[in-house]
């Protein structure tokens, strides 16, 4: 009296449609001695492309896509002596300063070394403020001795306090340390906050306004969480400005399909490099208030402002100074140790400041974060060092400031050089890189290359980027990975290669572009 | 001709039901100059308990719940001089060895210090193998110089290779480095794999078999992802053994509601401390094969085996030795740097090994992981140190082995002592702690206390744990946070307090229990 079983296409066993209720119950009572399903054939898997989470299939993250994998393979081939038209791969795809030989800040590294191996506080020839800082961190650790202890899920209270002080000093307005959450990089904070929006409102899925072009963590996370991507175009002809009329257009177009509830602004812009003007931020905040949107202020490049006349204003500062009712907009602002002058990507650290969240909502967010235990203590230490940098008179002060300004000055020069060079190249047009770490030039592609790409089923700028990599070893990310106005082509390159290498790269680039254009003329 | 807007209860603006199509279109064309929604009152929020992701509301994580928050508050009160019936809070709630004064492994910390501040390779009085290790890690970093560079999203290739070698050596069978993924602790690996299952199969949501009692990361993540929790009870009367008949019972009971597709086994057990016997693991693998389940082998306590006659067998090893068709079961095995003899919780590191996944599925998993950039390089360094420990003859060998065995021996003694003491206490019954870091005794609670708790709307063991904390400063986690058979009461305590403190804790515990029992007699 065993139940009839059928295999569905995806390999799952389904109850036979002919089995009667009595039979089914009889089988259940026998369950202790019979397998619940018939034996599967040995190649049957429970996870197949048919049964896999479809949102994971949809998710795309161009910055680490197949092109970057291919660059890694080429690098290995070169190491093994393969002959190529170039000698090295230049990874201009990722905002990874240390991979491009940027020098770490000495103070930060000395503090970490002492905190990790406290004997060094006694034995190493390090400045006193380094040792004091390490001691203060160890004292704030659970058990008061080891960075190997878990911290609070939101980071050490002491460091959250220092971040709040940093924000107060930056903005000239109070910040509450309880609203500061330390994270393993900005990405994890952004994901935690976006996840809060997974809910239907008035029968519609939630939509989130994101810039186009955008940093693809946003599109990837929206796909992963099943949230609606509502793109608003940045205005390339006006230096990638964020136009509120375009926000309205995007929101209006999406409102049939989505309950639009959040707005992402990346300032300084990634990949676009613009720095928002204060009045622009005011208009965005007004728009958010009028439409009950929570603002995600991605401000991880707040230290990376290069252009004359450009200045970083935080959304928090502007909102606070606008007064009621705009100072009640729900806001999450994100910061990272991976960018700025420190570039400590591998150590994974960052923070978010939450403003005006419903206290019950915030409590639920904190609860969800707590299941991930805590962010890396080492990332937290870096946060402490950049939130509370050595003060004038401290033994590490001069070296810290010197290292910081050397890095930022050099980045500013590279930002200028890269734009100037691109704009001298035929078929290239590049806006000023006011901030952040990238140039995002628009390129003209020969019609025949566009057709060729279409035949191959790839975006034309992806086709171009692949050829560039194979021919020259330069790895950039095509504009299609970030989004762009239909019919336009771009790519993102970092400004991070050191000056000499960057110059070389641009010469190679120019030669390649000429060759490519000629080939497909 | 402006569109009529209505406010829904959650504060969202909805289109007026009376608006005709023509009107709506007219409004859309005006959108550039009119706000899309009417002005909200200033206290209106987009994220409220009504509009928040309901899965986040459902999510619970007892190990860091309100009780632990309360312990932190009490600790601060004590520091400020508040008078309490005790002088210190004893955090026996979390598997956090360093917070309980466990000494870090010197080799690990010296390698990190050198990798973070490479000058120490020249200047510090560290053994040569420390310096060589640090140099090999720096060479494997992008740019070959700094741990501040991002690594591959799956960890440095070199370290993944070392982990594969470790697994081969542990199991006596091959392991592929490409199937090893380094993570920021086991938790993030577990979450990434569980997320793959978010899909309906044959019209049913996916269910996951998890032990009861369980480590609450599982219940929290299932709630967060909307996956079905299918609990199977461990058999307390048989040393918390994992009985396959009970797996069948659980699966059968759930099969109407869920497509059960995965099985979590925690070995050694958390919170239950059992170490699975080889034959037991074989039966579980057979069950998984027969029912097309992917196995999640939570093996983070693989170094923590104390009881005579107990031995750790990995699911991978047993499956491999069972041969076809069992060696084709889909498996993810998880390991962490937070447990074992190293206890480096704060540094966030771990790995997972994937076996027999559909290659397309694995490629999609890898793609999803890539959006989070990379796990902490420091956590990766610890993984390298424990995957490739100093070899006999290496300068650090003896100290490493000595520190490792001191820690594990002491933990074994504490495991024994805690069980013996509990079993001498009236109303306590505790299984042998064969492995892991916790005791999970069953306690009898006076009927009147159970009623009192019911009145207060809290689980009876939660009521007990709260009183224990308030009266003695001892913080444990009630059994209800892990799940338990209905009508039984337990709690989890770590075995991590150092021997002297642990003895003191047990004396205080005994006195409290007597007092509590008397009070509610």
Structure notes:
- Two copies of one chain form a homodimer.
- With 521 residues, the first copy, chain A, is of the alpha/beta class.
- Chain A folds into three domains: 1-52, no CATH class; 60-101 and 407-519, Aspartate Aminotransferase, domain 1, CATH 3.90.1150; 152-374, Type I PLP-dependent aspartate aminotransferase-like (Major domain) (Aspartate Aminotransferase, domain 2, 3-Layer(aba) Sandwich), CATH 3.40.640.10.
- Chain A contains 18 helices and 16 strands.
- A seven-stranded mixed sheet of chain A has the order 4-10-9-8-7-5-6, sandwiched between helices. Chain A has a three-stranded antiparallel sheet with strand order 12-16-15.
- Chain A is globular.
- Mean pLDDT of chain A is 91; it is low at 1-35 and 38-42.
- Chains A and B meet through helix 2, helix 4, helix 8, helix 9 and helix 10 of A and helix 2, helix 4, helix 8, helix 9 and helix 10 of B.
Topology:
The structure is a homodimer of 521-residue chains.
Chain A: E1 5-7, E2 13-15, H1 21-29, H2 54-58, H3 66-79, E3 90-91, H4 106-116, H5 119-123, H6 128-140, H7 157-171, E4 180-183, H8 186-195, E5 205-212, H9 217-225, E6 228-233, H10 244-254, E7 258-266, H11 278-290, E8 294-298, H12 315-322, E9 331-336, E10 350-355, H13 359-370, H14 377-387, H15 397-424, E11 428-429, E12 438-439, E13 442-443, H16 447-456, H17 460-472, E14 474-475, E15 477-478, E16 491-494, H18 499-519
Parallel strand pairs in A: 3-14, 5-6, 5-7, 7-8, 8-9
Antiparallel strand pairs in A: 1-2, 4-10, 9-10, 11-13, 12-16, 15-16
Helix pairs in contact in A: 4-6, 4-14, 7-14, 8-9, 11-12, 15-18, 16-17, 17-18
């Amino acid at each position: 009296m065993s139940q009839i079983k059928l295999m569905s296409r995806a390999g799952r066993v389904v109850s036979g449609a002919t089995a009667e209720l009595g039979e089914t119950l009889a089988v259940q009572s026998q369950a202790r001695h019979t397998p619940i399903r018939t034996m599967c054939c040995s190649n049957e898997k429970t996870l197949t492309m048919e049964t896999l989470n479809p949102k994971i299939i949809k998710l795309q993250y161009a910055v680490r896509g197949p092109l970057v994998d291919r660059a890694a393979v080429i690098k290995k081939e070169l190491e093994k002596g393969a002959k190529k038209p170039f000698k090295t791969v230049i990874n201009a795809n990722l905002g990874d300063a240390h991979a491009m030989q940027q020098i770490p800040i000495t103070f930060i590294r000395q503090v970490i070394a002492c905190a990790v191996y406290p004997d060094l506080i006694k034995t190493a020839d390090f400045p006193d403020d380094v040792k004091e800082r390490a001691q203060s961190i160890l004292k704030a650790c659970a058990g008061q001795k080891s960075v190997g202890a878990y911290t609070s899920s939101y980071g050490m209270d002491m460091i959250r306090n220092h971040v709040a002080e940093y924000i107060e000093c930056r903005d000239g307005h109070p910040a509450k340390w309880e609203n500061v959450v330390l994270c393993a990089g900005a990405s994890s904070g952004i994901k935690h906050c976006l996840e809060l929006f997974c809910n239907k409102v008035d029968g519609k899925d939630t939509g989130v306004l994101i810039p186009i072009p955008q940093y693809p963590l946003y599109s990837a996370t929206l796909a992963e969480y099943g949230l609606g991507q509502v793109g608003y175009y940045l205005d390339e002809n006006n230096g990638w400005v964020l136009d509120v009329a375009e926000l309205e257009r995007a929101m209006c177009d999406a409102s049939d399909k989505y309950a639009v509830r959040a707005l992402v602004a990346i300032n300084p812009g990634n990949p676009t490099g613009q720095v928002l003007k204060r009045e622009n931020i005011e208009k965005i905040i007004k728009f958010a208030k009028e439409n009950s949107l929570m603002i995600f202020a991605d401000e991880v490049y707040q230290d990376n402002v290069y252009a004359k006349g450009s200045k970083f204003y935080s959304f928090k500062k502007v909102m606070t100074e606008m007064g009621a009712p705009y100072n009640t907009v729900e806001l999450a602002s994100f910061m990272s140790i991976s960018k700025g002058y420190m570039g400590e990507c591998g150590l994974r650290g960052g923070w978010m400041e939450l403003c005006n969240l419903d206290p019950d909502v915030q409590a639920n967010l904190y609860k969800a974060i707590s299941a991930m235990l805590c962010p890396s203590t080492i990332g937290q230490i870096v946060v402490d060092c950049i939130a509370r940098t050595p003060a004038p008179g401290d033994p590490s002060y001069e070296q810290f400031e010197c290292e910081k300004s050397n890095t930022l000055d050099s980045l500013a020069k590279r930002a200028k050089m890269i734009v100037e060079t691109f704009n001298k190249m035929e078929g290239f047009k590049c806006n000023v890189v006011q901030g952040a770490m990238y140039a995002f030039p628009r390129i003209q592609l020969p019609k025949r290359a566009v057709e060729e790409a279409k035949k191959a089923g790839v975006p034309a700028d992806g086709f171009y980027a692949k050829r560039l990599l194979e021919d020259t070893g330069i790895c950039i990310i095509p504009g299609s990975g970030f989004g762009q106005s239909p019919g336009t082509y771009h790519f993102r390159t970092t400004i991070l290669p050191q000056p000499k290498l960057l110059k070389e790269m641009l010469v190679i680039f120019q030669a390649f572009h000429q060759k490519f254009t000629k080939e497909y003329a």
